[in-house]
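May I ask for a sample protein chain and its fold as C-alpha cells?
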Amino acid sequence: MSQSTNKDLGLSHVALLVRDLDRSIAFYEEFARLHAIHRREAREPLDAVAWMADGLRPFALVLVASRSLQDTPLGPFGHIGIACSTREEVLYQADEAERRGILRSKPRDDGPPVGCWTYIADPDGNTLELSFGQEIAFTTETPQARA
C-alpha cells in the first residue's frame, strides 16, 4: 500500500448553496473573518463557486451560487461555528448583527467547555455561530481522538 502525499485528509469542507455569491463572500469576510482563496465560474446547474478559509487549517467553507437549484438553510440550530480571539469580538459582532436585523440569538456565556456564543443569520438564512472560550482542541489531543 502506497503512502498518500495528500496533505488535505479528513474533514475538508462544508458547502452551502447561496443566491448571491458576492453578498455571501462579504458576509463571511466580515462576520467569520474568512477570505476567498479560490473562485471560479461553474457549469449548469451551478453559476459560480468560492472557497473561503481562515488560513489556519486546511478547511474551507464552499459557497456555491445557483439560480436553478434550491436547498434548505442550515439552522436555526444547525450552524457553522467560528471561534473568535476575544469575548469582546463576539459581543461586537452580535451588536453589529442586531443593528442589521440578522441576530438570531443574543450572546450568552455557558462557561466551559461552551464559552460565550451568539447566532447570526447569513444572507441565505444559514446560521453562523461566533464563540469565544470553546474547548475543542483538548478533545483532539487525546489518544482516543488520534486512534
About this structure: The beta strands are 13-18, 35-41, 48-53, 60-65, 80-83, 103-109, 116-121, 127-132. The longest helix spans residues 87-100.
